[in-house]
Amino acid sequence: MEHFVVSARKYRPQTFKDVVGQQAITNTLLNAIDNNHLAQALLFTGPRGVGKTTCARILAKMINSDGSETGDEDFAFNIFELDAASNNSVDDIRNLTDQVRIPPQVGKYKVYIIDEVHMLSQAAFNAFLKTLEEPPKHCIFILATTEKHKIIPTILSRCQIFDFKRITVKDAKEYLKYIADAQQVTADDDALHIIAQKADGAMRDALSIFDRVVSFSGKNLTRQAVTENLNVLDYDTYFKSTDLILENKIPELLLQFNNTLSKGFDGHHYISGLASHFRDLLVSKTEETIELLEVGEQTKLKYLEQSKKASQEFLMKGINLANDCDLKYKTSKNQRLLVELCLMQLASITFDGEKKNSKHFIIPPSYFKKIGITPIAVNVPQQRPVKKQETEEQIQTKETVVDLKKTKHLEALQVKEPPKIVLKQESKRTSGLSLSSIKAKKEHLIRQMDVVIDEEDLPKEPFTEKELITVWNEFIEELQKKGKHNLASILSIDTPRVKGTMVYLEFPNATNKMELERQQYDLLGHIRKSLNNFDISLSISVNEEMEKKYAFTDMDKFEKLNEKNPNLDVLRKTFDLDI
Fold first, then answer.
1. d(CA 86, CA 450)
2. At what angle do helices 297-307 and 189-199 cross, to 10 degrees?
3. Of 180 and 451, which is predicted with more confidence?
4. Does residue 501 contact residue 537 with C-beta atoms inside 8 Å?
């Protein structure tokens, strides 16, 4: 049996040109070598599988290359690798510093590659400081780590830092395509794209997944084989789910979710993937943002087609609902019900259970036009079929009858309350949960329209400050009977003062002012109706001096109480009490 070498080792880059997705760093290192401007201490940091150790080996090989090395030679004679994960003690670093003093036998430099350097102990870091800051001319240190934040600042300040980025899905897919061609494997573009996405920016993980899937499916790599082997949800699942949501097919949507769970997928994975799918659809709606869509060409066409069916408003609401379900999933006791409820809400975004009717008028438009008022159109549910012989105005007149005796001379009428609209149609008792009851409530709200009356026709009878205070106290008593003691106490703080139709009040702090401003409409309504003057308004101000009056000390409180009951002072002196 022939020995198998995994793709991550077999296709490890041998030159900087072969390194995937790190062009900025490789170009910098090449220029530093060409210009003899290479630092003696380098730190390569970044996530796993992005080429840190590979670049360190290539760099070590290049600076010692004299042209006599073979192409397949991995290391030169004077390149040393140290794994800090297993050699992290002070003694290991001391042995390293002792070796540093010896010059190289072959080549110009001795290169020390310390991998996972963040695993060194604190004492080992301190023992390494002096050597790292002032190494011999023939030594170069290359440190590699995935967790830069664990390295002490004194080490970081002595190194030239190179931050390796995650490899993009596009770059990883192109390299996987190159590997597939080299191994004579037929691979679908979408299949390689799924592998690149699953690797999450790590090229080594992508090659490991590629080897696993090739072992499963052989020389023909299809999207179905990749999704089945990697246990990931296919794009088709989310395309079908979105179609069912847009068509408001809740039963079929729940059955599809149940089928997804039966295949071993997690509900959390499903709902988070649905939120990402909505995001991709939203990105597909604008030409400028299509480049943010990291999918294959065939799948991109599907996204563009489905994005035309979904409105931007639907996608925004869908993302919010799916994201909210994602956040609540781990803390939910019934996680399946949570996802199902979210799916039902998503399928109800574009659902309208009532038929949309044309616009009608509560009162015939001709009546308002006669008195010089522009009629306002509102939506009224249609109660019966419209006959062809009838005009719109005749139908509306039959449906809504107004008592014209009260509204005939609207301009000259002085009333305290707006005239009420009288309807001939009798209401029927319906269940509070039925559709007919919901429609009846909407009709009732529509019919409760106030007729606009000119402010000049409102009564403005004169009144005195004494009459106002009487009405004011009556309102406070009503509040106390209703249990609204907080508002009643606020109104009792200051006595209102009248100047014309303006009522002035002062309060010790802004909290009292804000509370009264929230409740002022009920107060003004009571005062205006009782005094028959609709020009009355409030002016509320804050006086900090009043607050000082209410901020008593213990002695002030005792003296205040003693004024009402002098026996308190006798009691204090008799028993020698403290205040």
1. 83
2. 90
3. 180
4. yes
